[in-house]
Write a structure and sequence with these properties.
The complex is a heterodimer. Chain A has helices at residues 50-58, 80-87, 105-110, 117-120, 127-136, 152-164, 182-199, 210-216, 234-238, 243-249, and strands spanning 10-21, 24-35, 39-43, 65-70, 73-74, 90-93, 170-174, 202-206, 219-224, 227-232. Chain A is an alpha/beta fold. In chain A, the strands form two sheets. Chain A has a six-stranded mixed sheet, with helices on both faces. In chain B, helix 5 crosses helix 6. Chain B has one domain (2-259). Chain B contains eight helices and no strands. The chains are: A alpha/beta, B mainly alpha. Chains A and B meet through helix 2 of A and helix 3 and helix 4 of B. Residues 50-51, 95, 174 of chain A line the site of magnesium ion. Chain A: Residues 12-250 form the ABC transporter domain.
Amino acid sequence: MNTSIPNQNPIIEIKDLKKSYGNNHVLDGFNMVLNEGENLVIMGKSGSGKSVMIKCLIGLEEHDSGTVVIMGNDISKLDHSALDDLRTEVGFLFQGSALYDSMTVRENLEFPLRRHKKKFGKIKDTTPLVMEALENVGLAHTINLMPEELSGGMKRRIALARTLILQPKIILYDEPTTGLDPITAKEILLLMMSIQKKYNTSAIIITHDVDCARVISNRMILLVDGINYIEGTFEELSVSTDPKVQAFFK
Amino acid sequence: MNSIFKIIELFKAFLLEIGELSYFAGRFFKEAFRHPTEFKEFLRQCFYMGNRSLLLVAVTGFIIGLVFTLQSRPTLQEFGAVSWMPSMVSISLIREIGPIITALICAGRIGSGIGAELGSMRVTEQIDAMEVSGTNPFKYLVVTRILATTFMLPILVFFGDAIAIFGSYLVENIKGNVSFLLYYNQVFDALEFSDLIPATIKTFFFGFAIGLVGCFKGYYCEKGTAGVGLAANSAVVFTSMLLFIIDFIAVFVTDIFYDM
Ligand SMILES: Nc1ncnc2c1ncn2[C@@H]1O[C@H](COP(=O)(O)OP(=O)(O)OP(=O)(O)O)[C@@H](O)[C@H]1O
Ligand SMILES: [Mg+2]
């Protein structure tokens, strides 16, 4: 559906990424490029290493070999503070939302702001930023609630708001719609699209949800056996005759 | 033969654990002195820990003081040495029983709490979320908690000792009609600096051990809900063992100083 052609400025480049846990070679030479303004969907079976790939990308897991370059920085060559600075430009939406359950919604959103004086200067009053982020996801009224008082879909949206508060240039979504009912999933999708329009972000979206992929992707990569098995637009892949590809579109 | 191998394996695992724990402690010292200090979170943890264990420490201290005095009274009476009661109570309570009992209680109360809390944060990826938001989770979660236990345990021990002496006074008052002032006077008369200082220094180490092991177990918690339970449980077991080892070393070292 999304037919606007993004420009070809690579903002993330992954080359020959390898990662094993013991004898389990999860990633075995994975390559990927994310261009500026692009929505790149990554599909793969459960356990194929999608989450591992995205964690290596942001430096949560150390990769065994290969390079990850984000906005011109090779992340394995950055020291702690430079990596932290880079991370303010990359938002991460966790598969399980990962809200801090001992903090209110407000404190959850304020948390990422604590360490980022470089980007925002000293923030005297965080309320406008918190409110803006909450209004973006339509949950301004939950500001004083605790995470356990929210439904799964609401948690996902709050987590999205927490990701947005640093105004990242790139957002990584790990299965944003999994485990939600179709209507809520649609809401999240619309939200992701409106965010992209509003802030002109680039995104990597991991999903096994074909509808999600159809709606949001500019380009897709199938992750099979630890490599980027095939790449193309949704239309190209959906008519592919390769049985491994077809399996996803049934 | 098989059981010998098993014991060797267990011992190996134990040493490995000690090694990893030392590495963790090293990281603590490295990060503790780095900017920025999470002072607010440190205070919050101190308050939270004190608040959670105050009542428990008070009740246990009181009962220990009471029971200890009741139990030793007949023996002392037999020798006509009841007047030694206050000094005996103060020395044994302050040197040994107070610190170790309070530390054990806190290992159960605070250590397991830290293990479970950090463990569930690890399992639900909250620690990862902190990391990607550019906050150093080790500093924010681990350093503050270890510092908090290190500073709070001496205070809790002090408090527990005071209550235990009060419990002991109650028995003496009922059985022997001693006034409050007189009893506390006798108690403090019996104490010397050389009793107080090693006993206090020891409690800092106890506190450090409780925080360190709780954080270590929680921070490296295995995925899954079972992992969280295991983290909390093994935090208590491992800490208790460590507390006795530290106590042993402390007594040993103090003894050497006495001889000198
Ligand atoms: N910390 C770890 N230690 C050992 N093995 C791991 C670890 N993390 C992931 N794995 C292994 O890596 C493989 C890929 O896991 P990953 O979580 O990336 O799958 P996924 O593609 O995200 O699946 P899902 O769609 O279910 O989220 C699995 O086989 C898993 O067992
Ligand atoms: Mg996953």
